[in-house]
Amino acid sequence: MTSRIERLVQQLDGESGESYDARAELIWLGSAATPAIIHGLPSLGGFGQLTAIEVFQEVADPRCGPALIGLLNSDNPTVREWAAIALASLEIDGAVEPLRRAYRACLERATPPDWTEPDGIRWALTELGARSPVVPSLTARLRTDTPADSPGWPSAHFTAIITDLADHSQLILYSQFWRVDAGRTYSVSGVRLDWEIDWTAPWEHLVEESRTWSLLEATEAPVGDNIFVAPTWIDRTDLYPER
Helices marked H in the chain — which ranges? Predict the structure, then answer.
């Protein structure tokens, strides 16, 4: 059995069909496969490690925690991002400080804060209770619960939300639009303006630039009773975290 599991682990790096089959079988084996996956993880390439992370999440064996923390130091930014998300999804003990170090490392590498890796790490820290997004009272009051899993606000309030966030020194990075229909959620294409952020600029300048571009985006945003918007924003402390 051990040698069979070890072969399956190595197959995670194979062609898509072979990797998918190995992934499915490892998930079926469950926690019995966890030690072999952890042992084989360093020998896998990026694709194999990403697939292994998927297995870890499906099996939900907390023994994978140290291995996922180790992947936060990977040379592959997607592996680092997925490892961070998995650590939060599995509520791994001791993950907060490694995630904070991983986030600071992103900033030190000058990774733009609106890229997926720092975005994923911020999400992980928030899920683990180690980060509290600033939500001004008006923005909080305008939020509407929907019967579908569509976090956000009615798109009719988009301009008010932009103004409220900027007035409270919050920087909107991007916004996602959703359509809720018969209890299901569908992504809706919005207008993504070509705004090049100069992250060396003072925080106040970044906030005002974000306000200007977001308001322009709002003029062409999709609208309707069943259209919702989910802006993603950061606070000054996300760009200049305390050590």
Answer: 2-11, 16-29, 34-40, 46-59, 65-71, 77-89, 96-108, 116-127, 137-142, 158-167, 203-219, 236-239
The model carries a pTM of 0.92
Tell me the two tokens of residue 30: 């469950």
Length of the chain in terms of residues written: 243
Using one digit for the tens of pLDDT, what is the confidence trace for 149-196? Answer: 666 899 999 999 999 999 999 999 989 898 888 778 888 876 666 678
**Whether the Cβ atoms of residue 120 and residue 111 lie closer than 8 Å to each other:** no
In angstroms, the CA 226 to CA 164 distance is: 22
Phi, psi angles (nearest 5°) of residue 106: -60, -50
Query: Does CATH number 1.10.600.10 belong to domain 2-127?
Result: no
Distance CA 144, CA 164 (A): 16
Supply the mean pLDDT for the chain.
92
Paired with 11 in beta bridges are none
115-126: b or e for each residue (b if 16 or more CB lie within 10 Å)? eebbbbbbbbbe
Residues 6+ apart with CB under 8 A from 132: 126
